[in-house]
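## retry 2 of 3
previous attempt timed out at serialization; input unchanged, resubmitting
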Amino acid sequence: MDEYGPSTYGDRIAEVYDEWFPESSRAGEVDAAVLFLRELAAAGPALELGIGTGRVPVPLHREGVELHRIDASEAMLARLRTKEGAASIATSVADFRDFELEPRFTLAYVVFNTLFALRTQDDQVMCFQAVARHLTPDGVFVVEAFVPDVSRFDRGQRVSALEAGLDEVRLEVSTHDAIAQRTESHHVVISERGIRLYPVRIRYAPVAELDLMARLAGLRLRERWADWDRSKLASTSQKHISVWELDR
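## retry succeeded, writing output
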């Protein structure tokens, strides 16, 4: 495999992304996310980082929110362009750790753990800073991310079966570096046609560290929830929805 870069995950997985993560399986979650983000976007415009194949932005755009999208993967954006209504969403092909756009946004957001695709703490801080530069005075930055659970790993590794069909097996194989807060994973598909590898490399961060990144970027926490329905965050929560605003 060539060196893993900002577009690697999207370029590799684009061909199967909608099959593995169908919109129908997350319909209720997407509806709740769109309602949450629509309220914060107000008059807009809004910016999504790492837009993928459009699970959230396409329905959000249908709700009348003017959207701009950033993604490093041309393959993912090609998939997005096949979706009804996607053609009218402005697009920038860029690495979202650092970007410069002319518009200023009432809402910037990154969902489905995509912030962790930035694989160093410096890159994640740079992303917060870039977002802060692009917010209107009353704008907010929303992140959906998992709450790290290192107990998933046994001696720094994990192998799990995601699907075991008659003609195909899909596995997740991961190694974990607790010091660097990184995982290197593969979705491995084994079938009669051969073996396909879909690499996923991330650098996760706990909630408190994300708040420090926000502070370095001149942002402060406005609210935090366990899910898009604004349920209360608890020590057992598996993910969080965090909303930061400019610290004026």
